[in-house]
C-alpha cells in the first residue's frame, strides 16, 4: 500500500506546485472561504515584519497566530510553500496510519463479538470483511490530499493546515495507544486553536478501553488513569504557554489569540455563523449572544460522549465536524479534515437517508460562494444577505451530513444487536426512529 500512497502524495504535491506558480494563487489567498483573520498568511507575514523590527506582533490588532507558529516561520519563511506541502502530506500519512490501526482493532473486536454471539443471526451482510476494509486507509489519505478544500488551503498558505496536521498526529497517537503523545498533541492542538479541548473526552474513552478491555476496569483505575491523562494534557499546555511567554517576554498573546477567538471582534465575512449575526446586533446584547454561540462548540461533548462511550473514534469524528461548523472563524480547511474520514464509514451508506441532497447542497454552495461574493463586493448587485444565505445553506448541509451519519451509525449498531429485519407483533416491518 506504500506505493499507491506515494503516488497520491506526488500527484497532490504536483497540483499544489502548479497552483503556487499560477495566477490563481493571488486570487485564492484573498478568498474569505479559505483564509480567516486567525489563519491568514498575510497576517503572518505582517507579524514577522513586526518581529524583525523588534516590535511585539501583538501590539496592533492584526496578528492572532500563536507565538510558536510565528517563530517557526521566522526561520522557514523562505520555504513556506514547501512547509505547507509537507504539512499536508504529513497529515495524510498520519490519517492513513491511524485508520489502518483502527481497522485492525475494529476487525478484532468484531471477531470477538461474533465468537461470543453478541450479534443477531441475520446480520451477516452488515459484518465488515478484510477485503472491504483494505483500501479504506488509502481512500482517507486520498480524500484529504486531493480534496479541493485542502488544496485551496495549502495554496493560500493558511495555517489551518498546521492545525490539521497536529490533530491528525493526535488521532494517530491516540489510536496507537500512546497516552503521553496523545496528551502532548492534544495540548498543542488546544494551544493552536482552543476548540480541540473537546477532543479530550473521545481520546480518554479510547485510551481507557484500549488499556483495560477485556480486563474489567475498577472505579479506582478509571479515576487514576483519567487523572494521569488530564495532568499530562494540562502540564503540556502549561509548558507551551510558558514557552510562549519566554519567547515574547509578554502575556500579550493570550488576549490577542484566545481572547480574539472567544470574543469574535473581527467580523470579516467567512463561512461561519458568527459574522453577520453580530454585525447586525446591538452592542449591549453581543456578550450574551457570543456566549450562546460559543457554547455550541462545547455543549454537545457530554451528551455525545454518554451516547457513544463505546465508540470513541466515531465520537472523535463528530467532534471534529462540530468544531468546524460552530467555531468562530472556520475555513474550508477545517471542513476538509472531517470530510477525509467519510470513507471510514462507507459501511454506513445503506442507512444514510439524505446523502444525495446533502452532497448537492455542499457542492452548489461551494460554487456559489465566490459568485455571490463577486455580486456583493464588486458588482454591487447583491448585499451581505445573499452571501450569508449561502453560508447558512452550507452549514445546514454540514449539520445534515453529520446528523445523517450519526443516525446511520446508531441504526447499524441497533441492527447488529436486534437483527436486520425487525417486525412488529402483527408481523409488519417496524420503523426505527432516532430519539
From TrEMBL:
GO biological process: attachment of GPI anchor to protein; GPI anchor biosynthetic process
Chief location category: endoplasmic reticulum
TM annotation in the entry: 167-187, 193-209, 230-251, 257-278, 285-302, 314-342, 354-379, 385-407
Pfam families noted in UniProt: PIG-U (PF06728)
A single Gene Ontology CC term: GPI-anchor transamidase complex
Keyword annotations from UniProtKB, A to Z: Endoplasmic reticulum, GPI-anchor biosynthesis, Membrane, Signal, Transmembrane, Transmembrane helix
Family that this chain belongs to: Belongs to the PIGU family.
Name assigned to this protein: Phosphatidylinositol glycan anchor biosynthesis class U protein
Species this chain originates from: Pleurodeles waltl (Iberian ribbed newt)
Amino acid at each position: 500500500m506504500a506505493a499507491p500512497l506515494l503516488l497520491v502524495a506526488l500527484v497532490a504535491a504536483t497540483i499544489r506546485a502548479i497552483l503556487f506558480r499560477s495566477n490563481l494563487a493571488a486570487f485564492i489567498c484573498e478568498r474569505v472561504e479559505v483564509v480567516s483573520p486567525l489563519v491568514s498568511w498575510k497576517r503572518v507575514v505582517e507579524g514577522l515584519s513586526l518581529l524583525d523590527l523588534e516590535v511585539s506582533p501583538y501590539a496592533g490588532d492584526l496578528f492572532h497566530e500563536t507565538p510558536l507558529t510565528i517563530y517557526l516561520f521566522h526561520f522557514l519563511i523562505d520555504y513556506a510553500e514547501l512547509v505547507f506541502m509537507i504539512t499536508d502530506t504529513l497529515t495524510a500519512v498520519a490519517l492513513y496510519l491511524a485508520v489502518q490501526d483502527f481497522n485492525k482493532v475494529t476487525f478484532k473486536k468484531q471477531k470477538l463479538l461474533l465468537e461470543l454471539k453478541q450479534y443477531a443471526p441475520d446480520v451477516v451482510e452488515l459484518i465488515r470483511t478484510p477485503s472491504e476494509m483494505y483500501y479504506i486507509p488509502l481512500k482517507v489519505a486520498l480524500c484529504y490530499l486531493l480534496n479541493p478544500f485542502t488544496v485551496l488551503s495549502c495554496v493560500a498558505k493558511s495555517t489551518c493546515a498546521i492545525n490539521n496536521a497536529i490533530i491528525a498526529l493526535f488521532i494517530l497517537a491516540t489510536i496507537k495507544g500512546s497516552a503521553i503523545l496523545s496528551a502532548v498533541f492534544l495540548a498543542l492542538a488546544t494551544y493552536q486553536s482552543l476548540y480541540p479541548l473537546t477532543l479530550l473526552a473521545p481520546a480518554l474513552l479510547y485510551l481507557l478501553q484500549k488499556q483495560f478491555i477485556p480486563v474489567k476496569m475498577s472505579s479506582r483505575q478509571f479515576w487514576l488513569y483519567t487523572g494521569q491523562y488530564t495532568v499530562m494534557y494540562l502540564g503540556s499546555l502549561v509548558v507551551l504557554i510558558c514557552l510562549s511567554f519566554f519567547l515574547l517576554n509578554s502575556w500579550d498573546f493570550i488576549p490577542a489569540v484566545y481572547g480574539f477567538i472567544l470574543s469574535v471582534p473581527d467580523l470579516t465575512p467567512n463561512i461561519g455563523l458568527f459574522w453577520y449575526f453580530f454585525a447586525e446586533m446591538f452592542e449591549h446584547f453581543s456578550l450574551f449572544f457570543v456566549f450562546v454561540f460559543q457554547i455550541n462548540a462545547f455543549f454537545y461533548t457530554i451528551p455525545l460522549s454518554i451516547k457513544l462511550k463505546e465508540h470513541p473514534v466515531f465520537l472523535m469524528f463528530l467532534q471534529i465536524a462540530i468544531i468546524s461548523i460552530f467555531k468562530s472563524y472556520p475555513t474550508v480547511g477545517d471542513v476538509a479534515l472531517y470530510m477525509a474520514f467519510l470513507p471510514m464509514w462507507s459501511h454506513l451508506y445503506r442507512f444514510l437517508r439524505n446523502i444525495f441532497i446533502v452532497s448537492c447542497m455542499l457542492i452548489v454552495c461551494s460554487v456559489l460562494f465566490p459568485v455571490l461574493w463577486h455580486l456583493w463586493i464588486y458588482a454591487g448587485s447583491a448585499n451581505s444577505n445573499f452571501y450569508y444565505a449561502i453560508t447558512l445553506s452550507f452549514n445546514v448541509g454540514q449539520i445534515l451530513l453529520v446528523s445523517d451519519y450519526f443516525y446511520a451509525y446508531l441504526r447499524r449498531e441497533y441492527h447488529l444487536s436486534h437483527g436486520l429485519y425487525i417486525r412488529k407483533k402483527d408481523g409488519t416491518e417496524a420503523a426505527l426512529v432516532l430519539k
